[in-house]
């Protein structure tokens, strides 16, 4: 798994760290990662969140979350536990570590892939700006914003809104 942040590329799960030289940082999923282009995209997406919500993103723009690239079957840290990346997972935001785990393949120039990054950046913004009752609750808003961004790009999300509704509900206290 590779992590990209502030010009550093880190192979997660090992102690290997490589300094980015110039525009090209490293090879990830058989494609070159462009540090400057990724940082520019993150800033552009955060500005979009600022313009389309009441959230303050200024601190997040100064210190964005770490971005990790991982593959299906890898073990990653997520909310204090080690999990195996499932084939159905596109990405996951870890609020404890302020880390976005993006499952490859992922293309910096692909609109749907950009929207996956946007969705996880929204979770970072949500985490910094307000308190939620449960881990699932912010999903509805994140998907709605992702859908709006995709629509502005001329792309239909195709999201299953009934599934997302149930996904974003907090568990209720059940009594016998």
Task: Describe the fold and architecture.
- The protein is α+β, with helices and mostly antiparallel strands and 176 residues long.
- It has one domain.
- The protein is built from five helices and ten strands.
- The strands form three sheets. The chain has a six-stranded mixed β-sheet, covered by helices on one side.
- A hairpin with a 4-residue loop joins strand 9 and strand 10.
- Helix 1 packs across helix 3 and helix 3 packs across helix 4.
- The N and C termini lie far apart (44 Å).
- The relative contact order is 0.13.
- The N terminus is likely disordered.
Biggest β-sheet description: 6 strands, mixed
Mean pLDDT: 83
What is the total number of structural domains? Answer: 1
Low-confidence regions: 1-30
Radius of gyration: 16 Å
Based on the structure, what is the oligomeric state of the protein chains? Answer: single chain
Number of helices: 5
């Amino acid at each position: 798994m590779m992590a990209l942040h502030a010009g550093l590329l880190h192979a997660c799960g090992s102690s290997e760290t490589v300094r980015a030289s110039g525009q090209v940082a490293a090879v990830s999923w058989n494609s070159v990662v462009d540090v400057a282009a990724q940082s520019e995209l993150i800033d552009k997406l955060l500005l979009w969140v600022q313009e389309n919500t009441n959230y303050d993103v200024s601190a997040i723009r100064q210190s964005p979350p770490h971005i990790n690239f991982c593959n299906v079957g890898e073990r990653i840290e997520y909310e204090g536990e080690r999990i195996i990346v499932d084939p159905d997972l596109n990405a996951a935001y870890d609020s404890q570590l302020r880390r976005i785990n993006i499952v490859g393949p992922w293309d910096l120039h692909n609109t749907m892939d950009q929207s996956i990054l946007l969705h996880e950046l929204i979770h970072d913004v949500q985490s910094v700006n307000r308190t939620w009752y449960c881990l699932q609750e912010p999903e509805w808003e994140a998907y709605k914003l992702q859908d709006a961004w995709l629509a502005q790009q001329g792309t239909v999300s195709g999201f299953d809104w009934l599934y997302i509704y149930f996904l974003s509900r907090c568990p209720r206290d059940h009594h016998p």
